[in-house]
Automatic annotation (TrEMBL):
This is Vacuolar iron transporter. It is a multi-pass membrane protein. It comes from the Eukaryota. Belongs to the CCC1 family. Residues 111-121 have a biased composition (Basic and acidic residues). The keyword Methyltransferase does not apply. InterPro entries: Ccc1_fam. Residues 111-132 are annotated as: Disordered. It comes from Sphenostylis stenocarpa. The chain crosses the membrane at residues 72-92, 139-161, 168-189, 201-219. One of its GO terms (molecular function) is iron ion sequestering activity. Keywords: Ion transport, Iron, Iron transport, Membrane, Transmembrane, Transmembrane helix, Transport, Vacuole. Vacuolar Fe(2+) uptake transporter. GO terms for biological process: intracellular manganese ion homeostasis.
């Protein structure tokens, strides 16, 4: 009899534990399903666009120089100049853009503070709004870093290959792989269609390199 009571007690205590485990699992699933991926849009846009711009613009610049001159030194120098100039341009552009957004949001906060003066929620709401304000320096640094990371791909691919045709082929192959990775990464983080996103980024990069190479080749062959 005592053994039966013990087993019943164990069964009674086991049920809440199982219920709690199932409840915790359901909460985890709901938190994943209900996660707002649009919150990632701002930093994801800056990171993906910065890396993609660095990759495509630097690779296109190097392909354009390669269409006119087969010297490896000319390609590397042009690529490095494109990396530095592009990173600085991205940082300045992002800083100005985010600072303008900051000014708009601060002005809106002031108007709301004047409107809510005397309210009990005034201090609490103001603190929450300040925490959500964009950071221009952080955005500028992230954009410059992302651009530099993307630009390093064609630079490293071409740095140690002296043969002209092999060098161009390796640059195109490395850039193709990086474009697919960037497109896939952006789609996965933003929960967007992977194939369509990667294909869009890849075709755009190919077009940029082909147009730059073709036009530069045409101009250099014409003797201008």
């Amino acid at each position: 009899m005592s053994s039966n009571q013990t087993s019943l007690n164990q069964a009674k205590f086991a049920l809440p534990n199982n219920d709690l485990e199932r409840h915790a699992t359901n909460l985890e699933i709901e938190s994943v399903d209900n996660f707002d991926y649009s919150k990632r849009s701002q930093w994801l846009r800056a990171a993906v666009l910065g890396a993609n711009d660095g990759l495509v613009s630097t690779a296109s610049l190097m392909m354009g120089v390669g269409a006119a001159k087969q010297d490896i030194k000319a390609m590397i120098i042009s690529g490095f100049a494109g990396l530095v100039a592009g990173a600085c341009s991205m940082a300045i552009g992002e800083f100005v853009s985010v600072y303008s957004q900051l000014d708009i949001e601060v002005a809106q906060m002031k108007r709301e503070k004047e409107r809510m003066q005397g309210s009990d929620r005034e201090v609490e709401d103001t603190g929450e709004q300040k925490e959500s304000l964009p950071n221009p320096l952080q955005a500028a640094a992230a954009s410059a870093l992302a651009f530099a990371v993307g630009a390093m791909v064609p630079l490293l691919a071409a740095s140690f290959i002296k043969d002209y045709k092999v060098r161009l082929g390796v640059v195109v192959a490395a850039v193709t792989l990086a474009l697919v990775v960037f497109g896939w990464l952006g789609a996965v983080l933003g929960r967007a269609p992977v194939f369509r996103s990667a294909a869009r980024v890849l075709v755009g990069g190919w077009m940029a390199m082909a147009i730059t190479f073709g036009l530069t080749k045409l101009i250099s062959s014409s003797g201008l």
